[in-house]
Design a protein that fits this description.
This protein has 27 helices and 27 strands. It is an alpha+beta fold. It folds into 7 domains: 183 residues, no CATH class; 134 residues, Beta-Lactamase; 59 residues; 99 residues, Beta-Lactamase (2-Layer Sandwich), CATH 3.30.450; 77 residues, Helix Hairpins; 162 residues, Histidine kinase-like ATPase, C-terminal domain (Heat Shock Protein 90, 2-Layer Sandwich), CATH 3.30.565; 126 residues, Rossmann fold, CATH 3.40.50.
């Protein structure tokens, strides 16, 4: 609280102003009786006036000194309040980590934007989070951040250290703040000292003078930083050793001192232009030039500044660090300050010269003195009011308690929140607003922390003015004097109701998604087992019959043909599953979507039952897309089939139309894949409308799940494969029920501005394989190795087989001059296909290599590899596909008579 008004100013002024009157009253009779008495009265009056004037001047100077001291105290309190408010904001950031399972970049940005610090606490450079990184986790940390969309991310400065920290969040993430991204503040001694103090004391700390990494070559300012530690949730932090183990990182703010002080003072010099006080802030306990962090007076102003009349030093201790403040008031006092002195001088002289004007001048002098005293009292009260306004404008609910644990202050945001008066909240009155279920827990935590003189943090429900109980995050910390005497607690509360509701909503949504995923996986597993068991039953039966040596050749051929047919059907199921996952390899070309649909109309109508009519509305020219024609045909077939099946083979109409659409036209409801965005400006739309029974609302979310069907068991991969193809083409699907019955499926595919170039295709006959020579086959599966050996032998090659890459290198070194090409599996123990390919090319740089894998080509070939194969084979493959891969891999060679293997 500000000091009370110094009453000696008013008392002394009254005594001095009344002194000439008392002297004149005593000598009045002598003046009337004697001429010399008048001269003596004149002399005495002049002497008394001179003495009184000098004394008054000294008193005015003392009053000005007192006013200067009070202004310095006010500025110091503003700085204290601003540092406390900044610390409270950081405590709020630490509370966000403590209250959340995880805090990602988007949530951190939303939290900082909700504080509106530019308006409430101007001068803050930003709010960030620096993560603690043990040396053995540095590589993984860098990879994680790069995976978030920052491919050039590094922890700076480089070098080996036992522990690192890195600024991973800093908001606003723009301008100067981008320079801080990835900076290791533990690598710099001044910052490190403040960070370790905050870690060990579990309190906000303030660093010494630094140059911020945000600084550029222009307008360089001294800087400082504030840190609040963030500990792992649920880990004990009662001792220093426990805190060091539990440390997760720091919430921090960097401050450019000039910006910070301007935001703190907020035009103080404009509101007090007559005082002309300049403020200098020094780091530490000395006011030396190298410790200067801020000077409110510019170099130009210093050059013309008058001699200082008052100076004062003060200190600000915060977060384990001290600032030294120097206040300077330059120039002389204004004429108004010496008004009373001139009044005494002129008044005394006038009284002496003109006795008739004595009483009037004396009265005016007394009134002026009283007015000055009243003005000083008013200014003191206004200063105290301004001090309270600092806390009343803070963006959090603040409270204070005394040594008796009873609350003696609440700021205006608190009173506005509860809708109660300060008198109602004082003492334990505030507890009436705590939810009954939370009251005892809050009381135990508060009294326990009060007894231990320790900080605390808790969540509880507090009744708002409208009667609603809101969840708040309360924090408290003990207060001590500069000499270490405990004087009570100070604390804050932040409304976290929306955050908790969001967490609960996300939890329920995650549970729903988990149930849907479990249901989908269960259905998919059962359907896959059903399909494969049926096909395996047929394969096993046909092969068992084929083992009968008494079978005729035609019967044996029929059995083997049936087994091959079942195997192909099983492979189709696997292919459809890969399609659903978006793994749809195939060359893409520029296609006119309307032309593709028009070419397939007759085939689509032929597959439909007689009672259903297919109509079309195809624009000309149609939109152009970059796609695979076979995959677009598969989309049309499955959507049209789904449409006419919805009509239950009754009388119905299926309408196929193609049109152009903007990204804004794509509805957000029932959009698949779930969460898909529409970043492209224009789309080509395939719309399939039917007059069937429509779709039950509870089934819409399951439509594209593998093997989900409302018709009969064994179906359900059609729409799933459509979703996979559309997803691979960066498109989306929307589903809606049509008013009056039926459904509407819309497929949106990105349009391209490229034009289709019509060029005649040259049909080249595939060259025959030049048979003969030796092949190195590398395959770890015994059955596949034997089968592929038979294929290659029948194609006219001699086969050298190896079960893995290590054995393949040994065989290749022995028969290097004989081997024409290498056929290698991709996934093998000890040395995989990529490693084998690289090792072989070191020995023979030009050796042709074919890689084979059960994965599709896009998956198998992903990544950066120093060597590439000539061809790729996807398993399962047949002999014709193997022949095509060999033709692609082998260079064109002239026919050789000696190409055939010799005995």
């Amino acid at each position: 609280m500000p000091a009370p008004l110094d009453k000696s100013v008013k008392t002394d002024a009254g005594a001095l102003l009344s002194a000439p009157a008392r002297v004149i009253d005593v000598l009045h009779g002598a003046i009337l009786r004697s001429r010399w008495g008048g001269l003596g009265l004149l002399a005495a009056g002049l002497i008394c006036t001179a003495i009184a004037s000098l004394y008054m001047k000294a008193n005015v100077t003392a009053s000005a000194q007192h006013e200067f001291d009070f202004a310095c105290a006010e500025i110091r309190l503003n700085i204290d309040a601003r540092l406390a408010a900044c610390a409270q904001v950081l405590y709020g950031g630490a509370a966000l980590f403590d209250a959340s399972e995880s805090v990602d970049r988007a949530r951190w940005r939303a939290f900082t934007q909700s504080l509106y610090l530019d308006h409430r606490l101007p001068g803050i450079q930003g709010i960030g989070f620096a993560q603690l990184i043990p040396a053995d986790q540095l590589t993984r940390h860098v990879q994680e951040i790069r995976g978030q969309g920052f491919p050039d991310y590094q922890v700076r400065p480089a070098g080996e250290r036992t522990v690192y920290s890195s600024i991973i969040y800093i908001e606003p993430f723009s301008g100067r703040n981008v320079r801080a991204f990835g900076y290791d503040m533990l690598s710099e001694p001044v910052r490190r000292a403040a960070m370790e103090w905050a870690r060990d004391e579990n309190a906000a700390s303030l660093s010494g003078k630094v140059v911020l990494v945000q600084e550029t070559q222009q307008d360089v300012q001294a800087g400082t930083l504030m840190y609040v530690p963030v500990y792992q949730r649920g880990v004990p932090i009662e001792t220093i050793d426990q805190r060091r183990v539990a440390l997760q990182g720091w919430v921090y703010s960097p401050y450019r001192m000039t910006d910070l002080m301007r935001g703190t003072l907020r035009g103080w010099d404009v509101r007090h232009p007559d005082m002309a006080i300049s403020v200098q802030v020094y780091d530490g306990g000395k006011d030396t030039a190298d410790a200067l962090m801020y000077d409110s007076q510019s170099a130009e102003a210093k050059a013309v500044a008058a001699t200082p009349i008052f100076t004062r030093l003060a200190t600000v201790d915060f977060g384990g660090h001290r600032w030294t403040l120097r206040f300077i008031q330059s120039g002389g006092l204004a004429f108004s300050h010496y008004a009373s002195v001139w009044l005494v001088l002129v008044g005394g002289t006038s009284i002496t010269l003109l006795l008739s004007a004595l009483f009037f001048n004396l009265l005016n002098t007394r009134l002026n003195a009283r007015r000055m005293a009243w003005q000083l009292t008013t200014e003191l009260r206004e200063s105290e009011t301004r001090f309270r306004l600092v806390t009343d404008t803070a963006p959090v609910l603040l409270w204070e308690s005394g040594k008796d644990a009873l609350c003696d202050y609440f700021n205006q945001p608190w009173l506005k929140f509860t809708g109660r008066t300060l008198e109602q909240e004082l003492g334990n009155g505030w507890a009436e607003g705590v939810h009954p279920d939370d009251y005892q827990r809050c009381l135990d935590i508060y009294l326990g922390a009060f007894k231990a003189r320790a900080t605390f943090s808790m969540e509880y429900r507090l009744r708002r003015a409208d009667g609603e109980y809101r969840w708040v995050l309360g924090n408290g910390a003990p207060r001590f004097t500069a000499t270490g005497i405990f004087i009570g607690f100070i604390g804050s509360c932040i409304d976290i109701t929306d955050h908790k509701r969001m967490e609960e909503k996300e939890k329920l949504q995650a549970q729903k998604q988990h149930l849907l995923k479990t249901e989908s996986l269960s259905r998919m597993a059962g359907a896959v087992a059903h399909h494969f068991n049926n096909k395996l039953q047929a394969v096993m039966g046909y092969l068992e019959i084929a083992q009968d040596t008494q079978l005729k050749d035609t019967e044996l051929a029929e059995c083997l043909s049936g087994a091959m047919h079942s195997v192909r059907k099983a492979a189709e199921v696997s292919s459809l599953m890969l399609t659903y996952l978006g793994q749809v390899p195939g060359e893409r070309e520029l296609l006119n979507l309307a032309d593709i649909c028009r070419k397939n109309l007759s085939a689509l109508q032929a597959d439909m039952p007689n009672g259903v009519i297919l109509k079309s509305d195809l624009s000309s020219p149609g939109p152009v897309i970059s796609a695979n024609a076979n995959q677009i045909q598969q989309i049309l077939t499955n959507l049209i089939t789904n449409a006419w099946e919805a009509c239950n083979a009754k009388q119905g109409v299926v309408l196929l139309s193609v049109k152009k659409a903007l990204a804004s036209d794509n509805p957000a409801e029932h959009r698949f894949p779930v969460g898909a965005q529409t970043p492209h400006p224009a789309y080509a739309c395939i719309e399939v409308t039917d007059t069937g029974c429509g779709i039950a609302e509870q089934n819409i979310e399951k439509l594209f799940d593998p093997f989900f069907s409302t018709k009969f068991i064994g179906r359900g991969m059609g729409l799933a494969s459509v979703l996979g193809i559309v997803g691979a083409h960066k498109g989306i699907i929307t589903v809606a029920n049509k008013p009056g019955g039926g459904s509407i499926f819309r497929v949106y595919l990105p349009m391209t501005a490229d034009e289709i170039l019509v060029a005649p295709k040259k049909m080249d006959q595939a060259p025959a394989i030049q048979r003969g020579g030796t092949v190195l086959l590398v395959e770890d599966e015994v059955a596949i190795r034997k089968l592929t050996t038979i294929f290659l032998t029948r194609l006219g090659f001699t086969v050298l087989a190896a079960k893995d890459g290590v054995e393949a290198l040994e065989v290749f070194q022995q028969h290097q001059n004989e081997i024409r090409f290498v056929l290698s599996d991709l996934r093998m123990p000890r040395m995989d296909g990529w490693e084998t390919l690289t090792a072989l090319r070191r020995i023979a740089p030009g050796i042709p290599v074919i890689l084979a894998s059960g994965y599709d080509k896009e998956q198998a070939m992903e990544g950066d590899h120093p060597e590439q194969p000539q061809a790729f084979l996807q398993k399962p493959y047949q002999r014709e596909q193997l022949s095509a891969a060999i033709r692609q891999a082998l260079p064109e060679e002239p026919s050789r008579a000696d190409a055939a293997p010799t005995a």
